[in-house]
Structure formats: C-alpha cells, structure tokens
C-alpha cells in the first residue's frame, strides 16, 4: 500500500522538525516547507494527501490560501495550526473549509489521530466562505479549557445537531448558544431564547407552542409560541431543568416527530428549528428524583458541552477585563487601565458568579473611580465588598488558602440558606459526592496533561474505573502545554 503524503508548512523550524519526526514515525511520507508559496506549488501540482499548515506564514496567511485550495482540490483535507488561540481563529478555520483546527501547543498523539481520521473519511467539498466580520469575538479567552470549547463549536457550526450546554450560572451559556447560531448555517434565521425558570409553570406550554383563541381563560387571541417564532433558526431552552413534566412530554414529541400542536389546537404544525438547551443543574440527579424524563435527556444531550467556571480558567481574566473595558468605553464610560497588581487580585478571586460577576465588578469600578489607572488597592476594596455581599469568605490579602473542607462547609452553609426554614430535597449526600467528583477528576487529568494512566495512579483508581467515570460524568480532557 502506498504511503500517504503529508504536506507541512510552518515557518518555525522547531515545529517543522517535531512534525516531521512524529509523522514519519506514524508511517507517513512528509514534505516540509517554511512558506505558503512552496506549499501552493505542491498542491496545485496534485501532490499530497493531507495538508498541515500554520495560519501566519511569512508570505501569505493560510486563511487566504484555503479558499484557493478548496476550489482546486476540494477533497484535500487541511489541518490549520495557530498560536492565535481565539474563538474567531477556530471559526475562520471551520468556515474556510479546514478539516480541523489545532491550537498551539498541541498534543502530538491527538494530532496523529486527527490525521488518520481525516485520511480515512470520505472527502467533502465545502462551499462556505469566510465571514470577515472582524475580530469582535463573542467568546473571550485563550486558556486550554476555552480552546476545547472553540474546537467543539467550530465542528458544530455547519450541523443541526442538538447541543446541551451545562455549567455554573454566569459562565456564558447563552453567549455560547448565540455564537453557535450567529456563525452557523442558521445565521440568517431567528435566534429565540426562553428561560424556563422565569415563566410560570402553567404558561410554559403556551409560551413554547402558542395557543388558540379561547384555549384557556384569558386567551382572547391566537398567540404564536417560541417554536413558531424560531422557525428556520435556533431555539435556546435555558434552565431546561426547570421545565415541568407535562411540557417535557410535549417537547419530547416535537423532537421525535418534528411537529407540534398549539395549546387548544388540533392541526399538527411542522417545525424546522435547531434546539440548544442549557442548565446549571445535574439532570441525572433530577432523573433519579423523577423530575426530568430520561428519554428527553438523551434526545437533548446529543452533543454535551460543559463550560468551565471562571476560577478554572483564571488565566483568561486579563483578556476578559480588557474586553469589558472596551465594551464600557463604547457605551460612554471613560477608558481605564488596570495595573498588574489589580489584575493579579482579579485572577486570584474565586468568582462564584463567574464571568457575569467579573463584568459587573469591572463596570462598577470604571463608573465609580475617577482614576485613569485602577490600582490593586481599589480592586482589593471592591473584592472585599463583593465577598461580603456573596457570603463567600475569601481573604483578598493573600493569607492562608481556604481548605477543601472549609470550602465545602462554606458551600453547604450557603446552599442550606437558600431553602430558608425548609430542607433541601433528599439525596444530598450523593449530590455532593457527584459535584465534587467532576472537578476532582478534571483537576487530575489537567495536572497529568490528559494522561489517564498517570491520573488514575494519582487518584488511586483503576484505569478502567477512571475511564468509566470520565464517560459517565462527561469530563472533557484538557491537554495542557508541555513544560519547556
């Protein structure tokens, strides 16, 4: 069997050497160049079975080259590498027809696996052009955790697969849903959002499916529902865990049959919408409690996407601060600069309210303080106030860190206070164990750079047990850059 030939283009000599060695060991013929001109000459001559190229080349940007490759050789898979690890880089790679996007630094084993899959798959022609809407990124952050989010979203842009977004409140679930719509195949259709927790339970079915005149007391006219409003676009079902069982049954029927009836209506209405659901609750616990349909869960959870808490991607805080400062200036506030001690304090804070809380702090500081430079002292005072308001103990002065036991105790005290004089639902022990298990396994995998054998040893678990828990909990393995 003839070896597949891989064309590699990168102006970094170290990257070229590493790729050459890895691909050669994997059994491929490799041709290496440091510029786009030579790469294009090879491609136009019909050479190569797959291309691996950096975005920024000395003579041409890969995003300018990709449309020409698509026109001349639409069957040729192209893997794009980039150190500019932004959401827009991933989206441009996807829209320009790249097979996949690899943020630098990347895992060589993963890269070899992607090459193998690309060569084995039937070749498809992509006609979607690049959207040169600028670099106004809807999602911000260059952390390893966010890179995986970008890659998943880029792969989903040209599909209609149902997505289930999970994560704590304030992590940006609706922002992700909007990005998927605005840069996806349904961008010309409407984006309609509905928050299940914000609508009276007896009105949810009417809100979703609409109602006929006289369907119930007060229904004086026919009303369109969110499914009808979202026709041809995306319907975002936020806080899906708060949907009552009757509405869940009707939603399941829509997902199964692709049609629905209005409340009080008899005629089935065909629907063409993409469903994106989101929740900050553990739906598996709700299933065990009989509060959520298991069959609906699997219909919605076609592609699961868990958003990391801000404390798990603290390195993104400076980028987020700059992003919120730019937004505030555009809205009329005076420009401010956050000095390094201020940024360090913001990175160290646990942010129970996640990105939304950080945005509020940035805007408040910009509005209340006349100084051009926001100092560490200002941020220290604000974060002390923030801690007092949220009821979370955090010594901004950088004293001894809170222990795991102390953090659990703080969390439990706040959790019980939410129920006032009542008690939370039964099964609390297992819920706490389940919530602790996910971040524990994620932290071990991150620390071992995704090496499951080392992570299992670190945790004291059997490797098969760890694999089973990764599947059950939906843990995304974030591969950190290797140390120099």
From TrEMBL:
Q: Which SUPFAM superfamilies match?
A: CheY-like, Homeodomain-like, P-loop containing nucleoside triphosphate hydrolases
Q: Where is the Response regulatory domain?
A: 5-119
Please tell me whether the keyword Signal is annotated for this protein: no
Q: Which SMART domains match?
A: AAA, REC
What CDD domains does the entry give?
A: AAA (cd00009), REC_RcNtrC-like (cd19928)
Q: Does the keyword DNA-binding apply?
A: yes
Question: Any idea where the Sigma-54 factor interaction domain is?
Answer: 139-367
Carrying 4-aspartylphosphate, the residues are: 54
| Major place of residence | cytoplasm
> This protein is called what?
DNA-binding transcriptional regulator NtrC
Job of this protein: Member of the two-component regulatory system NtrB/NtrC, which controls expression of the nitrogen-regulated (ntr) genes in response to nitrogen limitation. Phosphorylated NtrC binds directly to DNA and stimulates the formation of open promoter-sigma54-RNA polymerase complexes.
